[in-house]
Amino acid sequence: MINLIFYLFFSVLDTASLFYIALKLFKIDLYLKEIIFASLIMAFCSYVIRVEHGYAYLDVFIQFVLFICFLWMLFRIHVFYATIMAGTAQQAFMLVQSLFYIVINITGIYQRNFPIVSTGIILMQLITDSFVIFIGYYIGKKRKGFDYIPDKPDARLIISKRDIILFTLSVPSVACLFLMMYFLKNLYQFAFIVPLFYGTILIGYLYLSNKKDRGDIF
Q1: Residue 70 and residue 15: Cα distance in Å, rounded?
Q2: Which of 170, 167, 11, 149 is nearest to 78 (CA)?
């Protein structure tokens, strides 16, 4: 029961910070109740799939799909744009987390455990979530972010080549999650490559989003 409570708490925190950075990055209004509701459902699904049944890779994929679905159905964002939002936010979150993971692991803290929970995992999650929320807050405070995503699911969709590339980048977004899990488990000596992948794809998202926001012709 204690393990379940810890898992759900930190999973909700992770997912809520992911929603927060996604909505702030694309200047969508925040709805706290909806964020908590979606985070609870995603956390419980994650626990069942990953902990109860041991399907970690399936959990990663399902979480990404649920993230898109909640942005689409709960926050009323067109599914095409919801996929772009999910991919961008996921890359930003995982870039931060992978960097903090490497730093914490180098210090040796990650391997330390209390009788119930892992000190390193808790520390990594707290630092990552806090930093991601800070980034989201800073973006909102400075009125940064992008305006091109309409917050209506039935908005008229005019797809350009740039939109197709942004949408396509969601595929390597999921692949990078699998890559991180594999590298950190089997090839830790090459773990520094993971943030490079995340950073490269994130730069692609941000560059193309900035171009689209400015109305530049592709």
Answers
A1: 11
A2: 149
**Dist CA 149 CA 77 (whole Å):** 8
Distance CA 109, CA 122 (A): 10
Taking each helix axis from N to C end, the angle separating 170-186 and 79-107, rounded to the nearest 10 degrees, works out to: 20
Query: Which DSSP symbol is given to 158?
Result: -
d(CA 202, CA 109): 28
Amino acid of residue 31:
Y
- Could you tell me if 71 and 85 are in contact, meaning their C-beta atoms sit under 8 angstroms apart? yes
Assessment of whether the complete model's pTM goes beyond 0.70: yes
Closest C-alpha to 32, from 44, 16, 8, 9: 16
Rg of the chain on CA atoms, in Å: 17
What is the Cα–Cα distance from 136 to 10, expressed in whole angstroms? 18
**Alpha-carbon separation of residue 141 from 18, 131, 145, 217 (angstroms):** 18, 15, 10, 29
- pLDDT, averaged per 10 consecutive residues of the chain (218 residues), comes to 82 95 92 94 94 89 94 90 91 88 73 55 86 94 85 71 82 73 68 79 85 66
What the block records as the tokens of 2 is 């204690």
Structure tokens, 182: 């594999």
Q: What span, in angstroms and rounded, lies between the C-alpha atoms of 160 and 3?
A: 47
